[in-house]
């Protein structure tokens, strides 16, 4: 992979992103999309935990919020990749960045397991999935913040 990272790093695109106003703009949009995504996710998880939003049916709450979560996630993914391209070899060995990617994979697995179990276990699987989701996202945000301090 080192060869690929060096090729990307030598590109004009990496130079333009890394040495101009583009990086701080990407990071600002990255943070804004996270705030949007995590805000909606928090409402869904608190509903699944039975802590808030009890006036709304579980399916209606998730159906209403998840499209916004996915839209914000795609924006976070695109802006994150944009920042990654500016210094791939540094990020690829950054422990905080690697922890963040691992937790993102676990979040995906958590969602898949919840979708499978929800048919059989209903509210219990919802509570377990919501609790794991909240803990994983807190870890992702902390690892994201630490990335900049370790690179
Ligand atoms: C969608 C879930 C994601 C969350 C919750 C997240 C969270 C964060 C946070 C909190 C920061 C620090 C922002 C700051 O304090 O200025 C950050 C920075 C960053 N994120 Fe993400 N991120 C996500 C996805 C991604 C993805 C998919 C990538 C790349 C493939 C990525 C790459 C980066 C990079 C390169 C930085 C900048 C680190 C630096 O300051 O040098 N992020 N992210």
Description:
- By secondary structure, the protein is an all-alpha fold.
- It folds into two domains: 1-92; 94-151.
- Helices cover 87% and strands 0% of the residues.
- The protein contains seven helices and no strands.
- It has helices at residues 2-9, 12-18, 22-48, 58-86, 88-92, 95-121, 123-150.
- Helix 2 (12-18) packs across helix 4.
- The chain is elongated, with a radius of gyration of 18 Å.
- It starts with a helix and ends with a helix.
- The model has no long low-confidence stretch (mean pLDDT 91).
- Protoporphyrin IX containing FE binds next to helix 3, helix 4 and helix 7.
* Class derived from helix and strand content: mainly alpha
Compute the separation of the termini in Å: 18 Å
Strand content: under 5%
How many separate domains make up the residues? 2
Compounds present?
A: protoporphyrin IX containing FE
Looking at the structure, what is the overall shape? elongated
**Helix segment tally:** 7
Residue windows where pLDDT falls under 50 for at least 5 positions: none
Mean pLDDT: 91
Order of helices and strands: HHHHHHH
Radius of gyration: 18 Å
Report the major sheet: none
Tell me the helix content.
over 70%
Q: Compute the number of strand runs.
A: 0
List keywords for this structure.
151 residues; mainly alpha; 2 domains; 0% strand; binds protoporphyrin IX containing FE
Write the layout of secondary structure elements.
Blueprint: H1 2-9, H2 12-18, H3 22-48, H4 58-86, H5 88-92, H6 95-121, H7 123-150
Helix pairs in contact: 2-4, 3-4, 3-7, 6-7
Bound molecules: protoporphyrin IX containing FE.
